[in-house]
Amino acid sequence: MTVDGAASVSQQLGKAADPMISDISLEQNRNRGAVSRRKMLMAALSILLLPLSEHPSGELWPSYLYTWRDFRKALQKMTSGVGPGDDKNWFYIGDGYSDSSLLVNIAAFIAESTVRSIRSDACDEGGENYQDDVYTGSDEGMECDVDTSMEIRGATHARWVGAPPPMYCADQRSVGFWDHTTGLDDHDLPYKNKGGRSDIRGCCWWGRGSMQIRGVCGYGRLNYWLGAKAAADGRPSMYPDIDFCKNPGAICSDTRRSAELRWVTGMFHWVQTVQRSKDVEYFPMLRQFVDGGDFKDDSFINAQNSILGGRAEDVTRRTEVFLDALKAFDLIPDSTG
Fold first, then answer.
1. DSSP character at residue 280
2. Where are the beta strands (DSSP E) in 112-240?
3. Which is nearest to 215 in space by CA: 224, 205, 225?
4. 232-266 pLDDT, tens per residue?
5. In the beta sheet, which residues pair with residue 61?
6. How large is the greatest C-alpha to C-alpha distance in the chain, in angstroms?
7. Overall pTM surpassing 0.85 (yes/no)
8. What share of the chain is helix, strand, coil (3-state, %, to 5)?
9. 5-40 burial, b if ≥16 CB within 10 A, otherwise e?
10. Is the N end or the C end of the chain the one with fewer CB atoms within 10 Å?
11. Which of 161, 127, 117 is nearest to 318 (CA)?
């Protein structure tokens, strides 16, 4: 992750990037406020530098799957027009309070997306058992029904040497495992995973997209607000022709829209799990951080690390990407400039 050369990129791409920003409709329903055009232009130029993925050579290369152009399309969809179906589902881009709060929210989102998917440049994750999840409270009943005959093969997978092939689910009662030593599937004998299962029936709910939305609950809520379920209920729908319960793989495999879906579903998941978190009041915390004016203060990202968790290397990477993004947004002076 680096922001080196930000000034030169701005000089070289400023004129070319300007039209991309000018046509973004950033009005949001119910008094969401306008965003400074200068700040948004800076954000646009900076995002060009952020999606870096690990190449098999070990070097960081621009991400193939996650690009600024697609991020822009997703941001437009999640902040204007039909939108994500309800005021509470909008991706936060400011409310007239402070442009800096918008940029901090984007920086935090990009940091988590980097940890979950951008760094490996994959849309499909490694996989767990998510078919038994159940919603309670206001989201009760949104879960997708499990179809054990469903058959899906992942569209992407990690590119590191020895990485397993794309995830796969089907009506198969016994499978083997991926041998990292030989780099081959071994199906001579059934092999139980850590959950005690050796079958892949109904196991189609692995994480997908920039934030790795997953499980019958995650896809059910996505379908309820953005997909075919919303359309069937007569509510506005961003993707009325996509049933995310019957085709969760559309996020990574839809030939026409997967590029934007990777970001849109990530933003939607960010809204549900962070902006609307039931465990912490995100916006008061965001406002306190912005009001403090010291963007080098690590209290905000430390709080995010506590909420989002992960391995020690995930915490380190999330923190580094977040701070680098704030530098790119000119909220933290870049001492290398």
1. S
2. 152-153, 168-169, 177-179, 184-186
3. 205
4. 999 999 999 999 999 999 999 998 999 999 999 99
5. 53
6. 62
7. no
8. 40, 5, 55
9. ebeebbeeeeeebeeebeebebebeeebeebeeebb
10. C
11. 117
